[in-house]
Amino acid sequence: GQLTIGFSQIGSESGWRAAETSVSKQEAAKRQVNLKIADAQQKQENQIKAIRSFIAQNVDAIFLAPVVSTGWDSVLKEAKEAKIPVVLLDRDIDPSGKELYLTAVTSDSVHEGEVAGDWLAKTVGAKACNIVELQGTVGASVAANRKKGFDTAIAKHSNLKVVRSQTGDFTRAKGKEVMESFIKAEGGGKSICAVYAHNDDMMVGAIQAMKEAGLKPGKEILTVSIDAVPDIFKAMAAGEANATVELTPNMAGPALDAIAAFKDKGTVPPKWIQTESKLYTAADDPQKIYDSKKGLGY
Amino acid sequence: MKGLPPVLITAIVLVLGFALCAVQFPNIASTRVVGNLLTDNAFLGIVATGMTFVIISGGIDLSVGSVIGFTTVFVALAIERWGVPPLVAFVAILVLSAGFGAAMGAVIHVFDLPPFIVTLAGMFLARGASFLLSTESVPITAPIYSTVSDFALRLPGGGRLTAIAIIMLAIVIGGALLLTLTRFGANVYALGGNRVAANLMGVAVGRMTVRIYMLSSLLAGIAGIVFSFYTSAGYSLSAVGVELDTIAAVVIGGTLLTGGQGSVIGTFLGVLIQGLIQTYINFDGTLSSWWTKIATGVLLFAFIALQQALVALARRPVAKSAGAAS
Amino acid sequence: MENSPAPSLLEARGISKSFGAVRALQEVDFTLRAGEIHALLGENGAGKSTLIKAITGVFPRDAGVIRISGEEVAPRSAKAALQAGIATVYQEVNLLPNLSVAQNLFLDRQPMRLGIVREAEMRRRAKALLGGFGLDIDVSAPLGSYSVAVQHVTAIARAVDLSARVLILDEPTASLDRHEVEILFDIMRQLAGRGIGIVFVSHFLDQVYEISDCITVLRNGRLVGQRETASLPRLELIRMMLGRELAETTSVRAATGEHQAREVCASFEGYGKAGYVAPFNLELRHGEVVGLAGLLGSGRTETARLVFGAERADRGQAKVEGEPVRLLSPRDGVRHGFGYCPEERKTDGIVAELTVRENIVLALQAKRGLHRPLSRREQDEIASRYVKMLDIRPPDPERPVGLLSGGNQQKVLLARWLATSPRLLVLDEPTRGIDVGAHAEIIRLIRELCDDGLALLVISSELDEIVTYSDRVVVLRDRAHVDELTGEAIDISNILAAIAADSAVVAHEGRA
Amino acid sequence: MTALLPRRGLAQILALIVILAVDRVVSPQFFDLRLQDGRLFGSLIDVLNRGTPVALLSLGMVLVIATRGIDLSVGAVMAISGAIAASLADSHGLPVVLAAALGAGLVCGLWNGFLVSVLGMQPIVATLILMVAGRGIAQLITEGRIVTFSSPDLVWLGNGSILGVPVPVAIALGMLILTGAVVRGSALGLLIEATGGNARASELAGVGTRAMILAVYVWCGVCAALAGVIAAADIMGADANNAGLWLELDAILAVVIGGTSLFGGRFSLVLAVLGALIIQTMNTGILLSGYPPEFNLLVKAVVVLAVLLLQSPKLSGFSGVVARLRRAKA
Ligand SMILES: Nc1ncnc2c1ncn2[C@@H]1O[C@H](COP(=O)(O)OP(=O)(O)OP(=O)(O)O)[C@@H](O)[C@H]1O
Ligand SMILES: Nc1ncnc2c1ncn2[C@@H]1O[C@H](COP(=O)(O)OP(=O)(O)OP(=O)(O)O)[C@@H](O)[C@H]1O
Ligand SMILES: [Mg+2]
Ligand SMILES: [Mg+2]
Questions:
Q1: Is residue B208 a part of any domain in this protein?
Q2: B260 touches chain C (CB under 8 A)
Q3: Cβ-defined contact of B120 to D253 (cutoff 8 Å)
Q4: Whole-Å CA distances, C344 to C149, C314, D191
Q5: Which ligand is nearest the CA of C409, by number?
Q6: Does residue B163 fall inside a structural domain?
Q7: Rounded to whole angstroms, how far apart are CA atoms B216 and B226?
Q8: Which of A107, A249, B216, C62 might form a disulfide with A19, Cβ 3.0–4.6 angstroms?
Q9: Looking at the UniProt record for this protein, which Gene Ontology cellular component terms does it annotate, in alphabetical order (chain B) (predicted)?
């Protein structure tokens, strides 16, 4: 019969997350799967509660987009006891729990940072470059990983240096505020060569700050960020942003396929289904991508 | 006694709500869901017990969520990185958190500052300190963790009464006894009734203030340990915003924010009401992020309005019978 | 008392205390001997309460030493004072309305077993203790559900039971009726007989002469003198307190019998509320003082609240100047030109944080509405007028009213309503806690207001006071109006007779 | 206008000066100002500009707190009004947009005021309801997306300038003066303080305490809505998920730093706004300092405690000395 799948989603803290939710719904509808989404409002305890109630409702499978990498062992054990397969979406969990889930459909956020760093290194070439970094929320694993990947990538190039790094909480408003102070602290922004933001939203805010300070983002100051939300393509089309690394919102599609195959034929999927971290630049016809992404619920 | 009528009303509200939910989702009326309710809200029940003391004494403690977060990180690092035996780590963190609470209480009393703000600073401090310890989440692999989290009393009907639920129930009962049966408890009510009067009647107001905040932070520390059992990890961002859930639970439980009135049992019922709202929304499973928030708000309103209506109803017959008598 | 002078039990030397610019106490000496009942007297704001608090360490002293039985002590908190053997009932009833009566009596000294309060034992002892004061009430009910009188008795009982060496009572009798005062005095005599030294503050000079052995008088924060009660004539005492002669103000009532001719200001027919006050008829006329007399809990305050609109009547008709009106809230009362000084000034009267000026103009401003604010000049003018008229001390309109002495707070409340030029003023215990000078002053004022055409409804537990100024006296019993006395019929014995008509009711349960 | 000026407030001014000085130390160009595209540009302007939302919130919050209440929903109200403004901006004129957004704030305020004054709920839970549900409503309006707009009128509200002064700052100043004029120019201020100081006594003195309470929540809602519009205009989009998140705590903090007691009564609008500036000066300083973000909260905690201790009645610090001097003169 029809599959019922419970999806414990983190929340809707960003446009990207909203898009992931709506794409998941679309993908489920396409496959006639009954997808129950429980929104955890950014709280792990809510996610655990949600998983417990999925178990109590005896769903066919559970999708989990974990808010944090640790702390899932006991609840996933319960799911295993109840013989409900679990698929991780978007983020991985701590290695100790590998046998507790069927597969993980995720991107590698360290790799995302690396892609961004490599692009910057390549674009800058040999000239000295002072980078300012807009970090994600302090303590968020994505933020830590994207920082780590980026740092690894630029460590190979002594001419690249991160001169300032502050958290912009993944939001536009904070991204703008932090960028404003970066500009003041770096002599009106003249000494800044590039901005790296852990997500596009912060970059959109930072671009506004740069414009208001009379700087020319995309030209005088290079920008590279992660997520590939529609608005960054708009900025790219206007020549105000240079590059973004895509984090696809379609995690549910591959996950649904894997579950269907597992339920029908017992095919055990690979432990990690990695999504692509594709780099987009102005060369990729940003306007077209913007139009195509606009409707996805970002 | 004085705490009873509001408690009774909260209990009625909880039972009514539970019945309504069960009508819509029969699965809710199972020992499994009830067991989950206790387990999932164990840490909340523990902090809320401490918060009840604070609020009855006329104060408020916004730092509890951060103390939980700090505790999980500290415990995880102590056990996993620093190689401290778990029990030693627990004792250390409890001493630390109790000291933290005592310090906040002392600042509140000595400098005559509003608890709201002092504990807000405490909230920043504890969260900031946990960032300094580690911004990553640290899994805990010590065997005691799997022992504790696997331990559960089987309830008839497939439910599980887990170790942390048992800890919570014990603390709630202990807290209720402490509040109602001891001199300390009476002094807590006295402080909330009127600080100045309590002082004039010879209550050592300063020492009481220190102890009350110490108790709250100590229980937040225990809640942190329970939280670390719950998730087998330490994470600096855990339990963000829990202070508001806690205050809401205490207030729904019939405790007045102005102090002087309330009960631990009421708070426990308030915690269960909040858990029930969450369970209901999870069972529904069709709500988007925003409808989840709206539904939570509407249900919160419904429960509180129901409670107020019951209170008003409970008052009316008294007036009538008195009128008839005269 | 004993013939040989007893040794000094409590000795305070050179006590000084300032609050900012206000020098509340200057070098005050005070000596209390064992087994002595010592009255501490003075005008409102003279510094009596401050002296007491300085002795018990509630206020840190600026200067001075305190000795108990010759030994120097320096209590820094109420608890320390208790441990040093000084038990105190402070002027503002400082108990905890949210706790049960029993808990209030035994707070911080409950009978314990294994760290657990023995509730039953505590209740038993509480019952016995209050029984000694002629009070038979449910001690497990919250104290707040009882009348002020019961609360006051509870506070006294607590202090007495602390079996300290020194017992300080700051205006303990202000809200007690005669019967309770008798009981209290009996107990005080017993305690004194056991060698306990008692400090007694009161504005009732009759009581002072009845009970005290010795009198200390303060004026403007300075010691005026200490005398044996027996050798101090009353007029001399008053001169010590006021620093001047008191004009004889026991004015007789205006010519009686003419009240029929006066115009009716407000009338209430069949007015009442179920479970609150039985329906009553009441006519209040311009230029007339109606007194409400009755025991505690007889429904006087309730009548006042209904008349003013603080409580909604569920039956009957109210008329103002002949026009039917509906009194649904205090605002309605204020709109129709009523004013009401509640008996519990701390919770229902003053806004402690606001200044004297703001407290005085509050009702007038509320009456005028938001859009017609009183300018600062008008406010200053009104405030200083009433500060002068009622002799509010210290005469600083910008002082937060909470820092004023009790009696002066009462005057501020009166000023608040006078400022609205009301047609009807309801005064609930207006002279409670007010010194002799001000007392006479207020009674004179009541007469004057009355002569200006104001209608007055006054509640007082002081029957001689009621008799002095009332044109008519309504007697209440058991929340019903039972009798009305006019003209020559108004005298204390008639009132008492009316109150006690159903003599079985004298056992009073003060439960609200 | 003199009624607006603080009689107390020395502690706050001192705190602001100290923090400004610290900012100058961590960032030498802190006081630099120049004109950039006809608009003042510099860290000081950032402080004012970024401080605007909290300053606006604190204007409403201080009145609510003066009545012994509290409003936890202001952040959510910001999100709602921002969402409404952003969704209407490109299809309607600015007056309509503003009317709709501020109207929403008014309705939110009415709701809170109704719960508190008519149903008699405790303010903290009454407003917690809207704090939770309100953000949901905002997300419902935007469907979880960041709704962007390009209406130059609305953008001007966030990024324009009047005589070099950023528009948000001018608006905040205008609101301060307006609120001050309304509150101190009418009897409202006195009646609010009386209500907060002793509601029972005020009721008995004929004050319409319910109406007062309703009014302050409504005003708080309107102020929050305005802050929401400005926050949306600033980033040219409505971010329902994050707009105003946790700002209620900042607003309450600002009010308390401004010396208004959480137990109601006396309040000062100017000092509440000053409190907001103190918070923002500290935040901007943290951003300029270059310390790793892990330290942000620790610094914040220490500064908040220090500012509070400065005001502590028990600490015979600076304010005590000044008060004594002043008394001696009087
Ligand atoms: N906490 C305080 N702060 C400032 N001034 C105070 C304070 N307490 C009392 N005062 C002032 O000290 C003076 C003495 O007041 P006190 O209460 O001792 O008078 P009292 O003799 O007890 O008067 P009453 O008979 O009215 O009770 C008054 O002027 C009063 O305003
Ligand atoms: N509806 C009410 N709200 C608040 N307080 C009330 C109300 N009704 C009565 N009270 C208070 O409860 C107490 C009990 O009133 P009680 O029956 O003793 O009135 P009373 O006859 O006026 O006695 P007395 O004035 O001598 O204390 C009074 O102090 C009164 O102020
Ligand atoms: Mg006194
Ligand atoms: Mg009375």
A1: yes
A2: yes
A3: yes
A4: 11, 25, 21
A5: 1
A6: yes
A7: 15
A8: A249
A9: plasma membrane
